[in-house]
């Protein structure tokens, strides 16, 4: 899949609440084996714990030319030399994040399954818009991003789109032609062998 011209790139999400010492070897292993385009750190955790994880993730990822973003914490991104932020509130803070981080930073926006929020985020200057969950999930409001949303976005909007949440090999196959990035995280970290699981998902 990753060899085709119009194939999406792999966007990796670190485990929620993971300790830096635990996740470091796993991240290095995954990024040595798979062509990761961007690494995202979930925003849950204490300032100290997130800071340690940010430093470790930056060191591992930047050594492999992989960008690193953190969810929502603009000041942590600045303090720890990350490449930007992934905002979980749609378009609401895109302009603020851009002002704080500068024009070269990555500012992404998660817009659930809302075309309207996605368009607002794109207009506000987001570098990418993320929709999800793509599969059935009891998390959040229980809604999920339909395939036709990605189809429409890929045809009408130039801002890159990320597909994430409850992804299966079948869904990834359907989303591949109409997404710029496929975000994987919980799908692999909950398994006994994350690297092997990612190999089955990312083919």
UniProtKB/TrEMBL annotation:
Highest taxon of the lineage: Bacteria
Pfam families, A to Z: TMP-TENI (PF02581)
Gene Ontology annotations of biological process type: thiamine biosynthetic process
GO CC list: cytoplasm
Pathway: Cofactor biosynthesis; thiamine diphosphate biosynthesis
SUPFAM superfamilies: Thiamin phosphate synthase
InterPro entries linked to this entry: Aldolase_TIM, ThiamineP_synth_sf, ThiamineP_synth_TenI
Listed GO MF terms: thiamine-phosphate diphosphorylase activity
Domain Thiamine phosphate synthase/TenI, chain residue ranges per copy: 11-176
Keywords: Thiamine biosynthesis
Protein known as: Thiamine phosphate synthase
